[in-house]
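Example 3.
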Amino acid sequence: MQSFELDKTDILKVKQALEGDDQELLSLLTEYHASEIAILFESIPLESQKKIINLLPIELASEIISEMSHEAHPEELLIDLEPDKRQEIVEELDYDDATDIISQMHEDDQHEILGDLDKEDAVNIRNLMTYAEDTAGGLMNTEVIKVDADMSKKQAIDQIILQSEEIEEFYTIYVVDHDDILKGIVSLKDIIKAKANAKVSDIVKSDFVFVKASTDQEEVADLISQYNLTSIPVVDSNMKLLGRVTFDDVIDVMEEENTEDILKFSGVSEDEELSGNWIEAVKSRLPWLILNLGTAFLASSVIRYFEPTVTKIVVLAGYMTIIAGMGGNAATQALAVTVRRITLSDLTDNQAYKTVVKELTVGLINGAVNGLIVFLFAYFYDDNLLLGLVIFIAMTGNLLIAGITGAGIPLILKRVGIDPAVASSIIITTFTDVFGFLLLLGLASKLLL
Amino acid sequence: MQSFELDKTDILKVKQALEGDDQELLSLLTEYHASEIAILFESIPLESQKKIINLLPIELASEIISEMSHEAHPEELLIDLEPDKRQEIVEELDYDDATDIISQMHEDDQHEILGDLDKEDAVNIRNLMTYAEDTAGGLMNTEVIKVDADMSKKQAIDQIILQSEEIEEFYTIYVVDHDDILKGIVSLKDIIKAKANAKVSDIVKSDFVFVKASTDQEEVADLISQYNLTSIPVVDSNMKLLGRVTFDDVIDVMEEENTEDILKFSGVSEDEELSGNWIEAVKSRLPWLILNLGTAFLASSVIRYFEPTVTKIVVLAGYMTIIAGMGGNAATQALAVTVRRITLSDLTDNQAYKTVVKELTVGLINGAVNGLIVFLFAYFYDDNLLLGLVIFIAMTGNLLIAGITGAGIPLILKRVGIDPAVASSIIITTFTDVFGFLLLLGLASKLLL
């Protein structure tokens, strides 16, 4: 298969086929991978999605639903299906995917769907629903390949082949005792390579990384990334094996966390759906804007205080916005580098100190260079040397403060246990506005009046 | 092993051990995983790193070096080692890791190191160095497990066991013909489960995803993520198998791309190293700030144009900064959501149109709410109804424009093939500054004078 990107032609073809004969639609759809049809679903109405799901074999239909992004609302599609079809699809889903989708429904719908299921499936899904969505428990799948430590090589291989009927992909085999207590891990390769008379306990690797069900998903992602793991076992406090989280779940988590980081950084609530409607967007953003309005009044009160100065030297009104704006941008630069660095690894006290000193230096230099340009403009265009000097000092001072706060505030927040991303550019910009106005107008009223 | 986070105690223990007896240091280090020692290296000087590398067995030493982040400069450590030690370590490295590290060196050092190597290794590394760093060729490892399509089950298993001596981890087995042309993939599980008399060609999966060596790393990451692959084969234009890219490389790529996204979004050059020194930071950020200074002069020229108005109604100076600032923040919000959405998937024309309409609506509502608050302030505090009305209109208009440009500009840039992230908040903020000043001061000079 060619590496594939869904384009307009594909969407058009499917839309046309939806109008026509079922057999033609079916044969067109078989050209696509489940994950491609899932993407295609984002561009067609619910009715058409339903038609396609009803047409396809259960296995493919459930794969498509499991591949649909959270934002495409697979739960709405599922609720809309005939109860029989729905039951078959849910029973075909992996428990973790079924749990994710059912968790998004209203309680009544949840009861209805779980009531229709086979008892064992319903218990497993209800059980998974008790874990918070953003923890290892919320991410894990309970279906794992496991063998007993005292099995022989042959018994182990037979067990693996038997269990692999149910589990499509497996990367690591878990070794447990009779009470399901996790003793170690082993790879299929190691079993194959073992001597014919070897026992599992001879080749088990008992030095392995694991997580608790309550471990935060970000930590799970860090461990999988740090140790290059295809999967990580999830255990309870007695080391009983509960399930596993696989690398593909972690790739999804990373995308999600990165979206949240960019949103928080820009003063948008982290749970705003990118493709949500305007009502959600207003709910997510208006509180931040109103908070910012409060801080903007603070900055403008500095200007009000110096109104007599501005009235006398009205040219300050133009420079004011340049100095505040440049401070905000320099602070955003320092903030982005520092927040991203904290996200990727913790800084020692010494590294934190060096970071602030570095940003202070950068602010001083960038401030002086930009200050010089504005000085020259004031000197030659406005023909006012003293005004030029005041502006030079204000620019340099404001960019210096921008560097210190851009690096220092997220570092302090991290130290006191607050998410450094709340120091979003909105907050830090207010700081440089206030300081920029204070420095420019304060100096001007002392030196130029 | 407990899930692990390196803390100050660990760093302190190692630092103390570095002062003491080699045997004690060695026994302390064996408590850590290679990737943990690699992180630890970020907090200790080059001399201490060198001491540890010289002390440890070659295999572990090379693993640590391969796990060191790009920013910790493993190439500097390698250059600093004795030639014999260095050669042993490089020969132990995977070709892709060796290539990445050697590429970072000066040409003289590259020649020296490659000259010392076994001829085959040197040829392989030189070959990999010809691929651009951010392509599948630059990411791939040339060591893969491959079997011939016409092998029997037993021959294939023997081959896999033989080849797996050299390759620590393998997730997919590649099926090739006698000319190394890739015919399909097969998993170890499928081979084990096959009948005793089966041939590889009976169980090969000939429907698979692959990439060219020149494919951009972001596309490689998208494919691995979309199809939940542990690895993806890299081929030339004749389908000859060149190597494979594994999911762990892609996790690193994703982290790197996300760092670049946040930096670009904040007006920082995407290649600024997060832990780089102040000289690099100034080089990376000063051009953006100077560009912004130019656009800030543009915004301030609007204020200069309306200077007579500001002189007469000096209270406008305070409101001016509120309206421009709020516009900038609202635009940043719309920009963040839109840029992130474009990053995750392409939008159809219809989706793009709907996005702009949504952001326009959000801007209108958020503008009206904030405009109302400022209106009330102007009416009650400044006791000026008409001023309040002017400010209300300016706030609503500016946030409306903020929504349209915050969503529209990145969408247009994407359509014409420019990276939408260059519409960084710096650029878009200038737009709302100019428009905000124009609207407020223009209206004020018509209605209030």
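Residues 296 and 342 of chain B are 28 Å apart (CA to CA). The first helix of chain B runs from residue 8 to 19.
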